[in-house]
Amino acid sequence: MAGTSLSKSFRLKPLHNFCTAAAADVVPPETPAVDPPLPQKPVPAPDQEAAANYQAREIQSSERRRLPRVTRQNNPEKVEDAICRMMANRAWTTRLQNSIRSLVPEFDHSLVYNVLHGARNSEHALQFFRWVERSGLHKHDKETHMKMIQILGRASKLNHARCILLDMPKKGVEWDEDMFVLLIDSYGKAGIVQEAVKVFDKMSELGVKRSINSYDTLFKVIFRKGRYMMAKRYFNKMLNEGIEPTRHTYNIMLWGFFLSLKWETAMRFYEDMNSRGISPDVVTYNTMINGYYRFKRMEDAEKVFVEMKGRNLAPTVISYTTMIKGYVAVERVDDALRLLEEMKSFAIKPNAVTYSTLLPGLCGAGKMTEAKEILKEMVAKHLAPRDNSIFIKLISKQCKAGDLNAAVDVLKAMIGLSIPTEAGHYGVLIKYLCKAEEYERAVKLVDKLIEKEIILRSQSILEMEASAYNPMIQYLCSNGHTKKAETLFRQLMKKGVQDPVAFNNLICGHAKEGFPDSAFEILKIMGRRGVPRNPEAYSLLIESYLGKGEPSDAKTALDSMIEEGHAPDSSIFRSVMKSLFEDGRVQTASRVMQSMVEKGVTENMDLVAQIVEALLIRGHVEEALGRIELLINSGCSVNIDHLFSVICEKDKTIAGMKLLDFVLERDFQVDSKSCDKVLDALLAAGKTHKAYSILSKMMEKGRATDWSGCQDLIDSLNREGLSKQADILSRAVKGSEKKPHSSNKEKKKLSAAAA
């Protein structure tokens, strides 16, 4: 059949061992023969040269058309690979199934097995496994069942695996022990011990004979969960069934009991092993050494190590590494180093575990020179440790020992070993470089951190500590590199860092460099995140705004400082007030003055007086009066007489009248001449009734006045038709001339007339 020949052209050699499929076993596809040359077109005979050229062009053209076909056939895609690719890229539908059928008319064992082996995930493999069986395309045998159980076991789809296993007899396929062993092991790796035990017990019910292989697998599963009593019961059951334990069995039992910290039980099994005439092998001795190490009985471990050598069993790298681990655990680092040299002398190459075991011990013992050499060996052999935490210890210890170059070399070694560096590694180096005042080297490390965004790596465990980034940020902000410091800290902020020291350093740095807006933005971030802000940062920010001629922004920063609960000193208030005042923003300066007085700062009174004067002159009388009252209530002295003089000089009669009225209402003491100046100004401005009201209030308050303009005021009142007020004032003036104080009756008349 054509289908048969197509399948055979891509067939693989039979895979007797389901778990050892290798590329070398694949039979390369036969290379098809090159297509024959295309037939030549007839050419006219008379022109032989033209004919020759035409024929040459045709030959070249035919070769160009054939070459791609040959090239494509040199390395064709295998059918099983094509099927796996199709399953990975398309949903499992009838259309996909038809596509696979059109690609492979006939399915044989090798093709089905290799599709299962090459499937991208377990779901693809299971769908293909069931489809070829239900569609009658292929009848599965032990090997494909075994492969499917293995795939599902690795994917922890153990119910599916169990169903496939138990359904095998229905399909006419016999069980064998290896299938159950595989399922038991899969349950064990998934941590489901009880199900593993049930499968093991089910074997006898189903008539599947159990051998030592089944028991060994069960023991490993049980011991991984620390069920040492269950292991003992099944060991006795094994003996009752007449199954003799092997050396491998005893090795598992010893390993399990040591793992469960059952020293005495492990020793009894070791004695039982010897009594049965089973001699220990290297694995046994390694297990014993590891057990002694767990109990920190290194003297006994040494005896076992010597005994192993005495039996002509050459210690392996595992033997030496376990001994080194034990020596490190009991702080016998010199013995560990001696053993390292011994294994090298026997041409036993230390592996990554050996070095990783030794390095922490050297760090703990302060043997940093030796640790440095060990690290060099690891880099030279490109041996990366399994536990990367050793590097942070190495960097820290080298830094504490004062060898910063060696610490930097550790970082370089990590890069050389392709081990991801983390922010914590850089942080330790930066911290100690700053302590040693080697800031330039520290800055270079910061540049790498920022450029590679090492801080933001999601897989990072070691974060940069405040003791590392704060000195660095402070240095950068103090030396004109605040922008770089902010970039560093913004990356730290994305990892949840909210350090007030760093924030305030950034504010100070931006302020000193003349970028107050950037500093204020940092302040806003701190406010949103509830981070406390210090007064020094505010002061520098305010000074920066003032230096750039932006007093309004300086005032905003000052308000924020006060809201934060800080008390600015008098120099800050004065600077802001003066800048606002000189910028013509008198009312804003007045509000700063109010804040200053409310905070108990009563200095800078000369500037305060100028602001009050400016308010009165500009017509902000009510605000000026409020500030005067605040100042007096706060115990500050206010030269009101001077204010009267200034107002009258500027012909601000209404302001003078309101100020005098304010003074009379609160019984403030002023010079009578100041009052006379106001009355003169009102009378001169033709504001007769207002002058009369003020004079009446003065007389009502009992303030003696010898104002020379009284008669002029009386005449003015008469001219304006206010004869009643003129008469009352005339009698009041005459009465005051006779008596030092007017009677209460006269005061009431004056008050009523003024109203």
TrEMBL record:
PPR repeats lie at residues 176-210, 211-245, 246-280, 281-315, 316-350, 351-385, 465-495, 499-533, 534-568, 569-603. Residues 746-755 have a biased composition (Basic residues). The keyword Amino-acid biosynthesis does not apply. Residues 734-745 have a biased composition (Basic and acidic residues). Pfam families: PPR, PPR_1, PPR_2, PPR_3, TPR_24. Residues 511-626 form the Pentatricopeptide repeat-containing protein-mitochondrial domain. GO terms for biological process: chloroplast-nucleus signaling pathway; mitochondria-nucleus signaling pathway. Residues 29-45 have a biased composition (Pro residues). It comes from the Eukaryota. Residues 28-52, 733-755 are annotated as: Disordered. GO terms for cellular component: chloroplast. InterPro entries: PPR_rpt, TPR-like_helical_dom_sf, TPR_mt. Keywords: Repeat. PROSITE patterns: PPR. The keyword Repeat applies. Belongs to the PPR family. P subfamily. This is Pentatricopeptide repeat-containing protein-mitochondrial domain-containing protein. It comes from Linum tenue.
